[in-house]
Amino acid sequence: MRRCPDLSLYLVLDPGLCAGVGMVETARAAVAGGATVVQLRDKAAGTARMIETGRALKAALAGTGVVLIVNDDVEAAVAIGADGLHIGQGDMAVTEARARIGPAMVLGLSVETPALAAAVDPALVDYIGAGPVFATPSKLDHKAPVGFEGLAAQVAASPVPAVAIGGLKAEHVAQVLKAGAQGVAVVSAICGQPDPEAAARALRDRIDALTV
Ligand SMILES: Cc1ncc(COP(=O)(O)OP(=O)(O)O)c(N)n1
Ligand SMILES: Cc1nc(C(=O)O)sc1CCOP(=O)(O)O
Ligand SMILES: [Mg+2]
């Protein structure tokens, strides 16, 4: 049976922002600081490079309990033996994604409106990435920002748990959780920070103060 992972602190890796430290070391640091999910997102990589990086990430995360999700590339996700795949509305049909990854892997789907959230099939999809809450330079083609009210509407409409994304920093954790999301997904709040472990811990501490 599939299970939704602990979405509370969801790191989305960006190779450009992680350039100084590297994606694997950034993931290690984020996990030490309390990340619960790591997503490999490299929009410029082909499948071979995704597999190479994904295998290194899988080795780094082994034994930590932290879940490895692969963005977009279903072939890489399966080859890596990742815990899951994340797709957006334009990437591929959820029916096809589920058929390709099988029943055991986690499937995440991006939604940008309450109507898209309401249309999610919980038999196929395990969680939604809800947003974007704010505009962000980390995804140049993001949809219109929805703010915390829009986030709450997406969460309320969804039959599966949500992780919020888009311009989120530690000071936004309380409003994200108040909107009903199970966690925060971040790129630049961790990737490229001078101390990624401390950056992750700052998020973790706010989450724990509100949920533990
Ligand atoms: C957790 C999470 N939420 C949303 C996204 C965005 O996915 P998508 O809309 O497919 O855009 P790209 O990331 O592929 O550019 C995500 N990756 N993760
Ligand atoms: C990968 C991604 N997806 C988004 C969406 O709205 O679906 S926003 C985004 C990037 C989020 O980066 P940061 O935490 O640096 O703002
Ligand atoms: Mg995508």
From TrEMBL:
Catalytic activity, as annotated: 4-methyl-5-(2-phosphooxyethyl)-thiazole + 4-amino-2-methyl-5-(diphosphooxymethyl)pyrimidine + H(+) = thiamine phosphate + diphosphate; 2-[(2R,5Z)-2-carboxy-4-methylthiazol-5(2H)-ylidene]ethyl phosphate + 4-amino-2-methyl-5-(diphosphooxymethyl)pyrimidine + 2 H(+) = thiamine phosphate + CO2 + diphosphate; 2-(2-carboxy-4-methylthiazol-5-yl)ethyl phosphate + 4-amino-2-methyl-5-(diphosphooxymethyl)pyrimidine + 2 H(+) = thiamine phosphate + CO2 + diphosphate
Class of the enzyme per the UniProt entry, highest EC level: transferase
Gene Ontology molecular function, alphabetical: magnesium ion binding; thiamine-phosphate diphosphorylase activity
GO biological process, one term: thiamine diphosphate biosynthetic process
Domain named Thiamine phosphate synthase/TenI: residues: 9-190
Cofactor: Mg(2+)
Superkingdom of origin: Bacteria
Keyword Metal-binding belongs to the record: yes
Tagged with keyword Transmembrane: no
Binding-site list for 2-[(2R,5Z)-2-carboxy-4-methylthiazol-5(2H)-ylidene]ethyl phosphate: 136-138, 167, 187-188
Alphabetized UniProt keyword annotations: Magnesium, Metal-binding, Thiamine biosynthesis, Transferase
Pfam families with a match to the protein in the record: TMP-TENI
Pathway field: Cofactor biosynthesis; thiamine diphosphate biosynthesis; thiamine phosphate from 4-amino-2-methyl-5-diphosphomethylpyrimidine and 4-methyl-5-(2-phosphoethyl)-thiazole: step 1/1
Binding site for Mg(2+): 72, 91
Gene3D superfamilies xref list: Aldolase class I (3.20.20.70)
Entry similarity comment: Belongs to the thiamine-phosphate synthase family.
Function: Condenses 4-methyl-5-(beta-hydroxyethyl)thiazole monophosphate (THZ-P) and 2-methyl-4-amino-5-hydroxymethyl pyrimidine pyrophosphate (HMP-PP) to form thiamine monophosphate (TMP).
NCBIfam families: thiE
Name by which UniProt lists this protein: Thiamine-phosphate synthase
Taxonomic lineage from the root: Bacteria, Pseudomonadati, Pseudomonadota, Alphaproteobacteria, Rhodobacterales
Name of the gene this protein is made from: thiE
